[in-house]
Amino acid sequence: MSDVSDVIRETLDGPWARVRERARTQTEPGRFGPPEADLPIEEYRARVHDQLLDLASLGFAGLGLSADQEGTDQGASVTAFEMIGHGDLSLFVKAGVQWGLFGGAVAALGTARHHELYLEPIAQARLLGCFAMTETGHGSDVQSLRTTITHDPATDELVVHTPDPSARKDYIGNAARDGRLAAVFGQLVTADGTGHGVHCVLVPIRDEAGAAMPGVLIGDCGGKAGLPGVDNGRLTFDHVRVPRANLLDRYGSIDAAGAYSSPIASDGKRFFTMLGTLVRGRITVGAAAGSATRNALTLAVVYGLARRQFAGPDGQDVVLLDYRAHQRKLLPALARSYALMLAQNELTAAMHEVLHADERADRGGAEGVEGEHGPGPGERDRRRLETRAAALKVANTSHASATIQTCREACGGAGYLSFNRLGKLRADTDVFTTFEGDNTVLLQLVGKSLLTAYADQFEAMNHVQAVAAVARQAGEALLERTISGSLVQRLVTGSRGRDADDALRDRGGQLDLFTDRERHVLETLAGRVRRARKDDPHQAWETFNDAQEHVLEAARAHIDRILLEAFAAAVDSTPAGPARDLLDLVGDLYAASTIEANRAWYLEHGRMSPEQAKDLTRHVDDLLVAVRPHVRTLVDAFAIPREWLVSDLLDPLTSEEVAASVSAGPAT
Amino acid sequence: MSDVSDVIRETLDGPWARVRERARTQTEPGRFGPPEADLPIEEYRARVHDQLLDLASLGFAGLGLSADQEGTDQGASVTAFEMIGHGDLSLFVKAGVQWGLFGGAVAALGTARHHELYLEPIAQARLLGCFAMTETGHGSDVQSLRTTITHDPATDELVVHTPDPSARKDYIGNAARDGRLAAVFGQLVTADGTGHGVHCVLVPIRDEAGAAMPGVLIGDCGGKAGLPGVDNGRLTFDHVRVPRANLLDRYGSIDAAGAYSSPIASDGKRFFTMLGTLVRGRITVGAAAGSATRNALTLAVVYGLARRQFAGPDGQDVVLLDYRAHQRKLLPALARSYALMLAQNELTAAMHEVLHADERADRGGAEGVEGEHGPGPGERDRRRLETRAAALKVANTSHASATIQTCREACGGAGYLSFNRLGKLRADTDVFTTFEGDNTVLLQLVGKSLLTAYADQFEAMNHVQAVAAVARQAGEALLERTISGSLVQRLVTGSRGRDADDALRDRGGQLDLFTDRERHVLETLAGRVRRARKDDPHQAWETFNDAQEHVLEAARAHIDRILLEAFAAAVDSTPAGPARDLLDLVGDLYAASTIEANRAWYLEHGRMSPEQAKDLTRHVDDLLVAVRPHVRTLVDAFAIPREWLVSDLLDPLTSEEVAASVSAGPAT
Predict the structure, then answer these.
(1) Of A589, B343, B496, B524, which is least surrounded by CB within 10 A?
(2) Cα–Cα distance for residue pair A661/B135, rounded to 1 Å
(3) Cβ atoms within 10 A of the Cβ of B473, count?
(4) Of B312, B667, B668, the CB nearest to A541
């Protein structure tokens, strides 16, 4: 590995580099990786179960869960999960269910007695559990779950029930084989018949021996397109009774007299606060999608540098990565993977701050929950975090699906063989685009949240300020930056006054182009939804429905911009030298290929002339030629241990071997 | 099924409707479909082997193969394969290898004695075989295969040999388990050491009992990302001797004295003629990709019409397909599937004509091969067929990958379960984009072939004609139409003189827009490659390499245009009435969404103003609203028997059941 790739690796490794380094030493082949051959589903499940216990024995879960939550390091925990994403994704999901979702629900929604009772055995994997939220009829619209949790004052118990087939808990990880206790989400109802919205209760689903508990019907989702080692199942409850103490009651409790109380009066606000505490899961999925994509890119790039096809002008077969079409397939995707990894590091750090600030507030006796009247600073940070988490979850997982597929195709028939991993990476990550929040629904959430932030800021200004802000092309106002204002200022100021054609060649100019697109899409969207009439729900619904594509476009523009900001900050923080220059070049490729992909927008909105658009394609081609010699360095900087990439794609016949056999001529 | 869908079905069914209808009666669940549960690989292979014998017993293969080739109906054969594409794709590929590739090689490259000896047992599946073309080191560049077939005059045998590891035959269907005889492609060398280019020889690889023949090393490719029922394997030959008579010698033979002769003098020309006779396989893969995509669209549309999520303005949860974002995912893809099916029907008919014309020429004593000096009319037809086959193979298979994936995501978690088929359809069709010709390589072939045809026509004109042709915006000249000139004339003339904004709303105007794009891309490409210097191979190679994206773009524009032409012809041939109106509307959606996807081009080249581009998006939205009520009719017209679509997605809780359970309120 070159010095350059070492320096780049340091930048990519980010704040929790030590967690990555520690993981890189646990490289016994197969220990946390996939099996060498396809296994029958039950053997696969058993294998992943054992890997989970092995992870637990290393203290893996303690990073994110501990009885007092003080000893945790949330950033380290997410980074550790990200590293598992380089291994078997079935194990990643199994661990995510056990510690991230199930354990996370107990930690975030429970109170001291739950923490004391459960967190230790959960962390040690002595108690395996499920996160039973999704129902057959409601996945995205969790607020409309139909499972009921009804308090019976006669016995002071909660009665958990599945009222109809659509309320069956579905696709639940750990349910079909291993789970003993489930965190079940449903509508909490007190004896007076009042509903209090969605809450979470712990329900034993199997006894020690593994038999289903009375009243609990357990089904098996069977084979899936991927993730064969995860035992997804279905849970149906027939008036199952648990003690009142099983209610995870941080945000809503029932007292001995059967009365409900909550620090948050509004059901809706409480619901979104509860969901918000689970943000870590969404961040982790995006992180692991990034790892899987880097595995795939490493395989496809190494293969593309060794494999040759069709004779070139000198009679030698040409290396695949010397073809422009092959470069176009892999290099812009590689540049985007860089941007995503850098942005994900910043998101992990932001999450670390917000979760630990929450915890400090809890310890300090503050309730950690804002009042009913407008968001306080802590709540604003949490909202911002949720939007960014949703944005990067979508960005990482959709990039994973598209890029791993491209890598598979770039390796032809070899890419289709199980042993070579790409098909498995593709199939395992596939569901990432629709679980932990469906990507389309999440993009809408991001778009709407940007719209709200925009409207809030707009309303806070007086008329003159507003007109001035809208008039400013660069859009410094109204958009929240994800990097320091002084860096933005430095970059953008440096680029002002240059020729328009040069904007693309300069980070500040690129930022202007990205920001302009986001701001304008958002602004026109705001104008459009202002037409929704509050007094006419049908008209309002139609207005929003017609604008769906516009909302998605706003979210996509936002994602592109925050990725570029992360790139700008990372280049800025890398010591001057060839590594920084190379990172800068990859940033240029990310920027140019993103603008090229969206050039219809720039043309439609008069931001670019037809001539400039055509130049853009040549500019991207020039960048591909410039990046091409460094492509091995760039995948080496991902520093994925060789043992984690078991695949013949890393050992194709080398170009030297083929050349040697060719020069020897056919033996007859 | 409505009358409208019946009429549309008749148009979609095309010339071999009777083959489709017969297949639709063979609907015993599972007979030609996938197993209900995932099977271990060896059980899966055994199952598909048995299904193959079952197919043979129905006389399936006789449509495409018979000892005298007179009794065949090539169009019916390809259509029958297309129908198998609705079932298990492992069976489709297994049958394609046995009858299409292995049997097809014997039929097309062999002569009377091979036909008499082998075609009957191959058709009856008493003799199972392999098509051993691809090598580990050469897949796309078949002309550079390294396996050698050397004549030994001492024994009058051919010696088949694998000279180095890169020459190993790889990914060969039927090789790992079932094949007895292999059609092996390699470099034919006569005793004097002269190479004659790639030829095909029949090599026994297993004895009756299934043991590998001496000198034949058989490997197993093991698990793959999909197609688990196909036993792909590897073949290495160590000086394996077969009689000289085993050479498939239609295009090149060795006489008893060891002298080589061929009706085609040039090695290169002979090679491409031999490859050209195998065009049927490529056409069949595109056809089956279309079937698989229609399966997926049927599942996703039916699910999207039943599944509801998030309350609408009336308090009821909204049907997924009423969301604009969901319509945008599925309906343009559905429209393109229509276009592809119609274009595929025309391709099948064209292939039928060309192959039977060949056969008639053979029977008439003509050699069916053109001379060395320029293409004759028969050869021109074959070349045109090859270009179209490559274009539609790419179009169908890339659409399959993208659309089946979209359908999977549109069904959320349910779409990920094996039982619901979408993951399996996705995984099985995945390799279609890289086998039977890698899509990127094929697109280049299409682009280059368009360029050659363009240059030929251009050169045939005098200077004044050429200038006039280039000046004509509509590009009537220089592009070969796939539909009758009189229909084009009628449509285009009808649209002339209208307002530019109306062009989009009228088939003739749409055709102009599509043709204009193809012509201009091709024209500028021609200008660009003219700069390649014949005296400087390095400069010429770089010029072509730099233009790769441009070549691909030309091919894509061509595909879009021939799909629109097929739509125009199909609407024209459908009896006037509501079915024709609906088909016309779907054609408008295909046209508008394709132009929208390529609007950057129209903007860059001044074909569209920014305002028109923005209107376009509204126009597509209007078409989605217009198509939405008919979406069930449109998938019903695919007429895929219910028994072939075993999946819970067709039986989600109906909206009525969910509504009933909601109005009953939660039971507690």
Answers:
(1) B496
(2) 14
(3) 12
(4) B312
Q: Which pLDDT score is estimated for B494?
A: 67
Quote the pLDDT of residue B652: 61
Q: In this structure, are residues A528 and A554 in contact, taking their beta carbons and an 8 Å threshold? A: no
Distance CA A342, CA A590 (A): 12
Kindly report the nearest CA distance between residue B560 and chain A, in angstroms: 19
Q: Are the C-beta atoms of B583 and B571 separated by less than 8 Å?
A: yes
The CATH number assigned to the domain with range A131-259 reads 2.40.110.10
- Asked if residue A169 lies in contact with residue A131, where contact means CB atoms within 8 angstroms, the answer is no
Same-fold call for A6-124+278-368+376-437 versus A440-664: yes
For chain A, how many helices (H) and strands (E)?
Answer: 25, 13
By percentage, how much of chain B surpasses pLDDT 70?
A: 90
Residue A499's φ and ψ, nearest 5 degrees, are: -65, 145
Does the domain at residues B440-664 carry the CATH identifier 1.20.140.10? yes
Q: Test B164 with A433 for CB contact under 8 angstroms.
A: no
Which among A170, A317, A423 has CB closest to B224?
A: A423
DSSP helix/strand/coil, A119: helix
CA within 13 Å, CB half, A502: 8
State how far the Cα of A337 lies from the Cα of A12, in Å rounded to an integer: 11
Q: Are B401 and A405 in contact (CB under 8 A)?
A: yes
User: In CATH, which of 3.30.420.40, 3.40.50.1220, 1.20.140.10, 3.40.50.300 is domain B6-124+278-368+376-437?
Assistant: 1.20.140.10
Q: What confidence score (pLDDT) does residue A465 get?
A: 62
Is the complex ipTM more than 0.90?
Answer: yes
Enumerate the domain spans of chain B.
Answer: 6-124+278-368+376-437, 131-259, 440-664
CA–CA min distance B528, chain A (Å): 13
**A144: closest chain B residue by CA:** B310
User: Which of A418, A424, A534 is the best mutation test for B, with the most CBs of B within 10 A?
Assistant: A418
Per-residue pLDDT at B496 exceeds 70: no
Q: Identify the residue whose tokens are 């979104």.
A: A272
Produce one character per residue of A412-446: b if its CB has 16 or more CB atoms within 10 Å, e if not: bbbbbbbbbbbbbbbbbbbbbbbbbbbbbbbbbbb
Taking CB atoms and an 8 Å cutoff, what residues of chain A touch B423? 224-226, 427, 430
| Cβ within 8 Å, pair A549-B138 | no
Q: Above 50 in pLDDT, residue A659?
A: no
Q: What average pLDDT does the segment B145-157 reach? A: 98
A616 Cβ contact partners less than 8 Å away, ≥ 6 residues apart:
A504, A592, A595, A596, A599, A608
Spell out which residues of chain A touch residue B600, defining contact as CB-CB under 8 Å. Answer: 599-600, 603, 613
Chain B residues in contact with A422 by the CB 8 A cut-off are 225
